[in-house]
Amino acid sequence: NVAHGLAWSFYIGYLKFVLPDLHNKVSRYSSTRGNLSSPRLHILLPLNAKVPAKPEEEDTNVVFHENLPELERDTAGVRNRSYKNSVYKITQNNEAFSCVLEYATPLLTLYQMSHESSAGFGERERKQQVLLFYRTLSQILENSLECRNRYRLVLLNDEHTGDPHYLSREIIQH
Amino acid sequence: NVAHGLAWSFYIGYLKFVLPDLHNKVSRYSSTRGNLSSPRLHILLPLNAKVPAKPEEEDTNVVFHENLPELERDTAGVRNRSYKNSVYKITQNNEAFSCVLEYATPLLTLYQMSHESSAGFGERERKQQVLLFYRTLSQILENSLECRNRYRLVLLNDEHTGDPHYLSREIIQH
Ligand SMILES: Nc1nc(=O)c2ncn([C@@H]3O[C@@H]4COP(=O)(O)O[C@H]5[C@@H](O)[C@H](n6cnc7c(N)ncnc76)O[C@@H]5COP(=O)(O)O[C@@H]3[C@@H]4O)c2[nH]1
């Protein structure tokens, strides 16, 4: 089950060490650079696995603000491998909400695999795999001391076509 | 099958765009910074999935030289996500061999998953999963126009304990 392994990889190879480090950066950020409305990493999970390069492409109310200071680690032979997170400002009516957000990168893999015949699964199974990814990741993160309370999983329905501000509403509503 | 998904993730989320970019950097590098003995990315695959942070930990004949210029891309909401590769100098007798190398990072996930009971597989299956990762990745890369001839998969036997220069020999012999 592809989604099961990708959820574990996302935890072991990224969230497990990025979330504690982010926690520290966010406390320092709020005291110097202006407040974040939420200290949590908002992880966006579109059900159709369609992940844009920039959330602005989905909703013009979601605007890049700046990157947090990067995390660098020596890992697997790569010296100073860099991990970055981006702060976004989200506007709704006249309110502004700012937070660290990104799409769940492994969904890009699920999407592209569903278009490669040799990868072994197609579009019909893709939605099931996204849901399995979401359920597996939720369980892992709930049981993780390093990650607990430091993230928010935002599942995005793919049946909102025509609503240009669905993304910003979903993020703020959470 | 976890290894199948991790091999696809390694290709789709990394090698597919890093290898063509590396090809360009390597041609520029060889003309200005001293020759690389091989232009290919050497991808190290230890059968026991034990991946050190630095190859020097495995073999003192493998020494970090410098990083190539980084690649930056906007992806999945992360602005200017950075991708780096490291050049190593490998000495054997009095010869020096230099190349870009790194361990296959998804093996770190396989290793750690085999120690988490809730992940669903143990140490016995791990070697099978490493072999499946290797076979799947080989097939994907052989059929990829972007990647063909730009990499070398170096499978590392785990039965060389006591040989402090196994790694350097394996890399040079290839
Ligand atoms: N948002 C985000 N920012 C990051 O910096 C990052 N780094 C990893 N990940 C995701 O976490 C998981 C575990 O990562 P791992 O390194 O084991 O596998 C990685 C790794 O083997 C390789 N890879 C990706 N980026 C790099 C990189 N910069 N250097 C070396 N290898 C890399 O290709 C795999 C798939 O990458 P992504 O498909 O981007 O998603 C990964 C993956 O789902 C990230 N996600």
Automatic annotation (TrEMBL), chains A, B:
It is found in: Cytoplasm, Perinuclear region; Cytoplasmic vesicle, Autophagosome membrane; Endoplasmic reticulum membrane; Endoplasmic reticulum-Golgi intermediate compartment membrane. Residues 1-174 form the STING ligand-binding domain. Belongs to the STING family. This is Stimulator of interferon genes protein. It comes from Carassius auratus (Goldfish). The lineage of its organism: Eukaryota, Metazoa, Chordata, Craniata, Vertebrata. The chain holds residues 149 to 322 of 401 of the full protein.
